[in-house]
Design brief:
Elements: H1 14-18, E1 23-25, E2 35-39, H2 41-46, H3 51-55, H4 57-62, E3 75-77, E4 81-83, E5 86-88, E6 96-101, E7 107-111, H5 128-143, E8 150-162, E9 166-176, H6 182-190, H7 194-208, H8 218-240, E10 242-243, E11 265-266, H9 290-309, H10 313-324, H11 327-342, H12 358-361, H13 381-398, H14 402-413, H15 418-424, H16 429-436, H17 442-448, H18 456-467, H19 472-481
Antiparallel strand pairs: 1-3, 2-8, 4-5, 6-7, 7-9, 8-9, 10-11
Helix pairs in contact: 5-18, 5-19, 6-9, 7-9, 8-9, 8-10, 8-11, 9-10, 14-15, 18-19
């Protein structure tokens, strides 16, 4: 029972108890003068947490880790990972803590809560700007219908964080289906303890992919379920122009949620080679490379499961390799279905999701999008494929603003092509004619193509102001991007790309 003095606060330590080998019990660093900067009241209510309690002194201490409810055991999780292709056998939560599991089974996790045994020389702290970035971008992604971790709160700790310049320190409290990563499995496999690996896989099945439990080979089915979830996720990224920026295996979740919004950004002018991260000097995680990189990360996941899939290593490798080989088709199917919706050409039947699968549910806020009526034949993929190929060439040739272009197609579907012509001239005339002959649905397009995304220059403007103590731009930006499909007067600047003379956008890890 939850006590009346602490409404809605209930944390359990299921992961910490089940996997002592994969975490170190730890305490958050002290916060000299904590001050709540942002609180996600909608998410708090969804979690059964009283927003007023979270604003109280004890509530703020909860979301900074300096007060621990009875029954919780905060741990710094251990994991390994391939970072930019190079393997690190021991990474882990260097500046983060898993506080425990909430009543609905999701994790409450902190970032910036101080040094842990995995800090690897870092100070374990975080600054206000990067933590507010994750808050803004993750909530925008949720509103766009993308599976993602969620942000519950950001607290200014009252401490100073030394980066290139002194910055105000902060802690982010976020919520996730779990924090199991490909890197978690890599760490477990590296111990040589097959029973630990088996327990971890069984835990992942029970928590995220329960239908795998009934399969003939549950561990091969686990791999296939994660493969499908990640193919769907990266397709969603590509459809909205999102660039994660640091797609290491420790940032690839077993649940299929987007995690860790460090050097992330949204592509404006269409270019598959787009990179924003200052540390991605070779373009490994460029926009167009994201699908093959996810497949590469999943190959590393497959390697960890070999001892579980079959006692015969060759047979296990063969089965996992065959499953991995289905990734391109799974991704293409998810991307094509999404692109059809962006063009107002949904198939008669939408993408199916496994009922009860938390990765499929994702706690997302995906817009309701109609399928083509049964009595109205939707163009088949064979007819749509050439249209998509030509569109890709058009976008690449013109470097048009990705979000603006698709929004301009809405009036074009009804015959007003002036906005499209302003963007790409007459280059699209033939394509527009062929597309309109397919009778695109304006309502489907309006529910799929956002008016507003977190424009990079506006995010930076808001974060710079917040670091100086002014939260008004962050608050306004959140209002805009958490209702991305509704065009509103007075918000035109939020729908416009960066001015032509703006400096190239560069993102940083925030560590």
């Amino acid at each position: 029972m939850t006590s009346p003095e602490r409404p809605g606060v209930r944390l359990t330590d299921g992961f910490a108890r089940a996997f002592p080998e994969l975490g170190v019990p730890w305490k958050a660093a002290a916060t000299p003068e904590p001050r709540l900067l942002a609180l996600n009241e909608q998410l708090a209510a969804e979690l059964g947490l009283d927003p007023e309690y979270l604003r109280s002194d004890e509530g703020v201490r909860l979301v900074t880790g300096t007060w621990v409810p009875e029954g919780a055991t905060p741990v710094a999780q251990a994991y390994a990972g391939h970072q930019f292709g190079g393997y690190s056998p021991r990474l882990g939560d260097g500046r983060a803590l898993l506080m425990g599991e909430l009543a609905d089974g999701r994790d409450l996790h902190l970032k910036g809560s101080g040094r842990t045994p995995f800090a690897r020389g870092g100070d374990g702290l975080a600054a206000v700007g990067p933590m507010l970035r994750e808050y803004v971008i993750s909530e925008a992604m949720h509103a766009l219908g993308v599976r993602t971790t969620r942000s519950l709160a950001v607290v200014d700790t009252g401490a100073t964080v030394q980066r290139e310049t002194p910055l105000p320190g902060a802690v982010l409290a976020r919520v996730a289906a779990s924090h199991l990563r490909v890197g978690t499995f890599q760490f477990a496999r590296s111990t040589g303890d097959v029973e630990l690996l088996r327990r971890l896989a069984d835990h992942a099945i029970a928590r995220h992919h329960p239908r795998a439990a009934d399969a003939e080979n549950r561990y091969l089915e686990l791999f296939t379920a994660v493969l499908d979830a990640q193919a769907s996720l990266v397709a969603d990224w590509m459809l909205i122009g999102f660039i994660h920026g640091v797609m290491n295996t420790d940032n690839t979740t077993i649940s299929g949620e987007t995690i860790d919004y460090g050097p992330c950004a949204f592509m404006e002018g269409f270019d598959p080679a787009t990179v924003f991260s200052s540390i991605d000097t070779q373009g490994r995680y460029a926009y167009g490379n994201q699908p093959p990189i996810v497949q590469w990360n999943l190959a590393r996941f497959a390697e960890t499961l070999i001892p579980l899939v079959d006692d015969d290593e060759n047979a296990a490798v063969e089965a996992l390799t065959a499953a991995l080989g289905t990734f391109p088709a799974r991704y293409d199917r998810a991307w094509t279905e999404g692109m059809r919706r962006k063009l107002g050409l949904p198939a008669a039947l939408g993408r199916s999701e496994e009922p009860g699968d938390s990765a499929a549910q994702g706690h997302s806020a995906a817009p309701d999008v109609e399928a083509a009526p049964d009595d109205e034949a939707a163009p088949d993929d064979e007819a749509v494929a050439p249209l998509l190929d030509e569109l890709s060439r058009l976008l690449t040739a013109t470097r048009v603003d990705y979000t603006t272009f698709f929004r301009a197609l809405i009036p074009a579907a009804e015959g007003d092509t002036s906005q499209v012509r302003e963007l790409v001239g007459e280059l699209a005339d033939g394509w527009l004619r062929r597309w309109r002959e397919m009778n695109p649905s304006v309502s489907v397009m309006a529910a799929t193509n956002p008016v507003y995304i977190p424009r990079n220059h506006l995010v930076e403007e808001a974060l710079d102001a917040a670091s100086g103590g002014d939260l008004s731009l962050v608050e306004e930006l959140l209002v805009v991007v958490t209702d991305p499909y509704t065009e509103r007067p007075g918000l035109e600047r939020y729908a416009s790309p960066a001015p032509p003379d703006a400096s190239p956008h560069v993102t940083y890890c925030g560590t």
